[in-house]
Amino acid sequence: MVTGTTENLAAYETFLKGRQQYTDRHPAEAVRLLKEAVHLDPDYALAHGALAEAYVSLAIIGFAPAKEAFPLAQASARRALELDDHVVQAYTALAEYDFHYAWNWAEAEKSMLRALAIDPNYAIAYARHAGHLAAWGRFDEARAAEERGAKLSPQRRNFSGLGVLMAQRRYQEVLDRTADQDGSDNNVILSVRGIALFMSGRQAEGLVRLERAVKLEPDSLDNQAILGWAFAQDGQTAKAREILQQLQKAARGRYVSPMLTAQVAVGLDDRDLAFAQLQQAFDLREPTLPDIGFDLTYDPIRSDPRFRDLLKKLKLDVFFPETAKQ
User: Fold this and answer.
1) Among 133, 183, 223, 264, which residue carries the largest CB count within 10 Å?
2) Residues 230 and 210 sit within 8 Å (Cβ to Cβ)
3) CB within 8 A of 136, min separation 6: which ones?
């Protein structure tokens, strides 16, 4: 049964356009179109739910500060559920709100499981849930969720399980899984293979791929940050500092997540700068901050007491009890 629908054809067509923009990872345009859809039909529950998901992506991708986008996502999701309590997108958006912004792990899982109960075939929910489970150290469950999502969404198959394998430091398995895509110009594959090669002791090969990822998508600050981290870890500190300066300069004209500068600072072993940026990320409620429990780029500072303190503030220390001993 399709819920939350509309009899307004213009609203429906605008909704479809907005949803396609969301799928194509253009959240700003998705937000614009979906806002238009709910303007055309204020009682269009499905459009409100989709708008909530688009606001979430706006924050996660880094196009808007979390403190702006996530409250809007929550409001849109709640409006959708007021109109129809079976709008699956509203529950996934609430789960993302609680995971990435409120840092309420129990509510995040409750909402995501509710979404999956409503629609067991919603691939996006499985992918999002996998990310949450990995952040809680539940890697086997995370991989199962990724695989389930991949079966439901063919475009996810090439990437299924790679994120969890990286979180578990199973680099050779990542390389084996992506060997037939080594010549790919896909940015995700380039980045994943680049990091896996780098961490497997094949630094030069890894850097080639990470540099190519930056060239293919020069506007991606995430790619630049991981390249800066890798340069620093490889002893090429001048190149790393140049990227750090570029990120700091960019932040004067647009929103740049402090997590990105923190990554490069970690690579350079500039711990005071790294923790200052992580504290700023905490204050801003940066949506990627909950990933620090498993993110390999923070491995060099895990033994620092300040890192453990941050995990405790996030209530992630219970999932990674051995962090302080690494």
Assistant:
1) 264
2) yes
3) 105, 293, 316, 319
Task: Decide: 36 and 51 in contact? Cβ < 8 Å.
Answer: no
Residue 47 lies in a domain: yes
* Residues shown for the chain: 326
Collect all residues with Cβ–Cβ distance below 8 Å to 26 and sequence separation of at least 6. none
116 shares a domain with 1: yes
Are the beta carbons of 146 and 160 closer than 8 angstroms? yes
Tokens of 83: 């109109």
Name the residue range of residue 279's domain. Answer: 219-320
Please state, in angstroms and rounded to a whole number, the distance separating the CA atoms of residues 150 and 153.
5
Tell me the whole-structure pTM to 2 decimals.
0.90
pLDDT in tens, the chain (326 residues): 456 689 899 999 999 999 999 988 899 999 999 999 999 999 999 999 999 999 999 999 888 889 999 999 999 999 999 999 999 999 999 999 999 999 999 999 999 999 999 999 999 999 999 999 999 999 999 999 998 988 887 766 666 788 899 999 999 999 999 888 887 788 888 999 999 999 999 999 999 999 999 999 988 899 999 999 999 999 999 999 999 999 999 998 888 899 999 999 999 999 999 999 999 999 999 999 999 999 999 999 999 999 999 999 999 999 998 643 44
- Regarding whether 233 and 263 lie in a shared domain, the answer is yes
Q: What CATH number has the domain bearing residue 46?
A: 1.25.40.10
Please indicate, yes or no, if residue 326 is contained in any of the structural domains.
no
Tokens encoding 5: 């629908």
Chain CA centroid to CA 23, Å: 15
What six digits make up the tokens of 11?
């609203």
Count other Cβ atoms within 10 Å, centred on residue 240: 23
